[in-house]
Design goal:
mainly alpha; 144 residues; single chain; 0% strand; 5 helices
Length: 144
């Protein structure tokens, strides 16, 4: 019972956003790594792993902004530095990761098609957006 009370206390007094924010960063980074490995090694399984990672990144970009909004309101009174830029970039990240995952799901042979360059570019853009969002989050936490 004491453990459950500690968990509830931690969830209600500590910002949950830092816990969730690492999922889109890690998943887009892993997706980029695996798409590059698939390109280099010409292995279909590596592209499928990249697709799984970008799909999970798309799902994680739903939860992360929600807890980010909550933290901004609760801990910064709605005035966290760069919060407007983060909202725009998070929306773009959701659109790109979701579009990439949906298009790849509907066209399983996308990696072998003429749209391959755009498909691979979406992984680079997704990771770049996640990295910029991470930096802007560090500005909030550490105040660079």
């Amino acid at each position: 019972m004491a453990f459950i009370q500690r968990v509830i206390h931690a969830l209600t007094t500590q910002p949950p956003h830092p816990l969730f924010v690492h999922f889109p960063i890690a998943l887009t980074g892993a997706a980029l790594l695996f798409i590059l490995l698939a390109l280099w090694k010409k292995r279909e399984i590596l592209e499928q792993i990249a697709f799984a990672n970008i799909s999970l990144a798309a799902l994680s970009t739903i939860v992360t902004p929600i807890v980010g909004f909550r933290d901004n309101i609760m801990f910064y009174n709605g005035g966290a530095p760069n919060h407007n830029a983060k909202i725009i970039l998070a929306g773009l990240l959701f659109l790109i990761t979701s579009s990439t995952a949906i298009i790849r799901w509907r066209k399983p042979r996308l990696f072998q098609s003429h749209g391959k360059a755009i498909y691979i570019a979406s992984y680079f853009v997704s990771f770049a957006l996640a990295a910029v969002l991470g930096f802007l989050g560090a500005v909030i936490v550490y105040g660079f």
